[in-house]
Specification:
The protein is of the alpha+beta class. The protein has a single domain, classed as 2-Layer Sandwich (Alpha-Beta Plaits). The chain has two helices and four strands. A four-stranded antiparallel beta sheet has the order 2-3-1-4, covered by helices on one side. The longest helix has 14 residues. It is globular and about 30 Å long.
């Protein structure tokens, strides 16, 4: 399953690292791709990945919007 988010408040390398860590902690084994320039995050993983990813990004302090 694939989930994609726009994360407009992810603006720098520190933000990217924080989101990457949050997703790795919440979704071990999921494939995560972040495009900092486009402010997008895509995750490929098991069923339920979208909800878990959204919660992890929010807990890291960012505002994900599903695409």
């Amino acid at each position: 399953m694939r989930a994609e988010f726009s994360v407009e408040d992810m603006t720098c390398g520190h933000c990217e690292k924080a989101v990457t860590k949050a997703l790795a902690d919440s979704l071990p084994g999921a494939a995560v791709h972040i495009d900092l320039t486009a402010h997008t995050v895509s995750i490929e993983g098991d069923t339920g990945v979208a909800g878990k990813a959204e919660a992890a990004i929010r807990e890291a302090g960012y505002t994900p919007v599903r695409l």
